[in-house]
Write a sequence for this structure.
């Protein structure tokens, strides 16, 4: 149930990280590149760190096939910070008054529309709230405005386990996507989006860094009230270093990018993720104890949510799973139930152990 005294951690974030990267980082914390100082102690302006930063940008560009007309920014604030930064940088592009359209499919897109409403007209174009956020509204039901600056989606809702199966067609209006919980888990066509953003604490590294991939023509339109630290033009002109950036997070993200390349790249990782999630969903679909409620078309590969038909068994399930070395399976407080987050760093063996435990638990609970 454990490997090298480490459990299988199914927490949604901060989440499980690649063991090989953690082992290397443990050494670099004390002495990085023979400098006699740890990676967290080296100046962000030093030659060594700038090389680390530039390699991380280059590797991410390669892994995600980021086109040359896009800019990668490494910013603070998490996805919650970007919920404010995005309208401040983009709503000024609206044809009339500042406004944008939002498709709300769960907790995180609901937070996005609420925050954006402080800076302009945040229009609800579609929502699956009536379906308890178990699906994505059909595209032909969306009420988009021709005057909006952009269309915002959360392409993978961590809490509800809902994932867009493909980028929606929104015409010439920029599509903005929060990809925090499935970044680098599947191949994505960056050209379909105006902006992609996400915190790294789920699939890439420790909490504290946000990756923003923005089409260059969308930079330079910030509202006057925009804080300097979230003005994309200022950040683009300074390599995201108008102040001291989270250097360890950038270093760690770069190490994970290298690790993904060693696994065969994003396409290879995607195949593994498909296999892991299918193992779990196959069990759920055949079970008389577990209940998977998300529309099959929009099931997340990263966050598998499910419920016990007999909810009185949940505390025992959580206690026994933890004793078996399977941690972090409790669902979000707003949704209840159970959730297995199976990000890139979760090995297939971990999902196999979870499936075996769930089968045995069902047998004993019959």
């Amino acid at each position: 149930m454990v490997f090298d005294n480490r459990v299988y951690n199914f927490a949604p974030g901060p989440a499980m990280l690649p063991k090989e990267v953690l082992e290397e980082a443990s050494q670099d914390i004390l002495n990085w590149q023979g400098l006699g100082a740890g990676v967290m102690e080296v100046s962000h302006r030093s030659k060594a760190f700038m090389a680390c930063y530039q390699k991380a940008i280059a590797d991410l560009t390669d892994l995600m096939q980021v086109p040359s007309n896009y800019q990668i920014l490494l910013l603070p604030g998490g996805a919650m910070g970007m919920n404010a930064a995005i309208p401040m940088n983009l709503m000024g592009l609206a044809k009339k008054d500042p406004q944008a359209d939002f498709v709300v499919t769960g907790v995180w897109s609901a937070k996005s529309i609420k925050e954006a409403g402080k800076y302009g007209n945040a229009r609800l174009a579609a929502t699956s709230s009536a379906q308890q956020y178990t699906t994505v509204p059909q595209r032909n039901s969306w009420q988009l405005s021709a005057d909006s600056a952009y269309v915002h989606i959360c392409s993978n809702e961590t809490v509800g386990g809902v994932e867009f199966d493909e980028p929606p067609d929104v015409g010439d209006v920029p599509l903005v996507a929060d990809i925090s919980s499935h970044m680098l888990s599947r191949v994505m066509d960056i050209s379909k989006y105006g902006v992609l953003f996400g915190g790294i604490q789920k699939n890439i590294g420790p909490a504290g860094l946000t990756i923003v991939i923005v089409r260059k023509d969308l930079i330079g339109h910030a509202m006057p009230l925009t804080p300097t630290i979230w003005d994309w033009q200022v950040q683009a002109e300074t390599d995201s270093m108008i102040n001291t950036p989270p250097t360890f997070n950038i270093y760690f993200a770069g190490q994970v990018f290298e690790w993904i390349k060693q696994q065969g790249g994003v396409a290879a990782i995607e195949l593994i993720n498909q296999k892991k999630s299918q193992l779990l969903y196959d069990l759920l679909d055949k079970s008389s104890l577990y209940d998977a409620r998300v529309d099959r078309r929009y099931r997340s590969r990263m966050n598998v949510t499910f419920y016990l038909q007999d909810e009185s068994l949940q505390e025992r399930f959580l206690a026994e799973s933890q004793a078996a070395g399977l941690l972090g399976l409790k669902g979000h407080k707003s949704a209840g139930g159970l959730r297995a987050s199976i990000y890139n760093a979760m090995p297939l063996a971990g999902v196999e152990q979870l499936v075996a435990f769930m089968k045995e638990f069902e047998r004993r609970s019959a």
